[in-house]
Amino acid sequence: MARTTAEKRPTEPDEADEAAEPQPEETAAEEPTPEEAAAEEPTSEEAEPEHAALEETDGDATEVAGDDADGVAADEDSPKPRRRLPRISDPVLLVAAVLVVVAAVCAGYFGWSWYGAAHDDSLAYSRDRDAVLRAAEQGVQNMNTLDYRKVEQGLASWEASTTGDLHQQLVQGSAQFSQQVRAAKTVTTAKILDAAVTELDDRAGKAGAIVAVQITVTPPTGTPATKQSRMRAQLTRTSSGWKLSALGQAPVGTTAG
To answer: Locations of Basic and acidic residues compositional bias (predicted)?
Structure first.
């Protein structure tokens, strides 16, 4: 009996050894098998795209940030674009636009020319009318002014104020007038009271006027005599201006206003 017990004893595990050694079942449950580890661990091909995607995403974000920064800097530094007028690319429209501008310019020019010509005629007529009025007043005053002490000077003024038949009559009768004035020793003066142009043909160079004049005759002795008279004058335009071509008394009732 003792021998049998000694042979079987080595085969029975010690309780301390059983406690120290891990159980096979628990170790198998905790550690994955090689197949499972291979299935869970990603391959290099699967991991590289994810890494590349991350790198591409980071690069794109960097480029976008850089572009935004460059755009802001460019907007701040670059001058603002100027507004350009639209260009006409169609030749027909371009020619039409040019013709419209030319027509407007021509219309303005010819309209102004017509307006200017019309007013030039009016201005020319007004100038002739004023010249006739001045010539009539001066002529009537000269023809009624004569000093026996200055007969030649007075007669020269008569001739210078007249033209045509009236001028010829004065030239032919100047000697006789001179003798009469010297003999009478009179001094005649004239003052124009009023005058008006009654007719004017600027193309024909003919005009008429009524002149109211006050004439004073001073004899060598005695009191000066004064009278008022209305004279009708006919005037003709000459190379030296408007001059008297006829002079006489105006009909009664004719006024110079």
So the answer is: 1-12
Query: Position 54: which residue type?
Result: L
CATH topology (fold) of 118-249? Nuclear Transport Factor 2; Chain: A, (3.10.450)
Domain locations in the chain as residue ranges: 29-61, 118-249
Q: How many angstroms from the chain centroid is the CA of residue 231?
A: 53
pLDDT, tens digit (0-9, with 9 covering 90-100), for 207-243: 999 999 999 999 999 899 999 999 999 999 999 999 9
pLDDT in tens, 103-156: 666 566 556 555 555 556 788 899 999 999 999 999 999 999 999 999 999 999
Residue 208 CA to residue 240 CA, distance in Å, equals 18
Q: Cα(111)–Cα(72) distance, rounded to whole angstroms?
A: 57
pTM: 0.55
Cβ atoms of 217 and 188 closer than 8 Å: yes
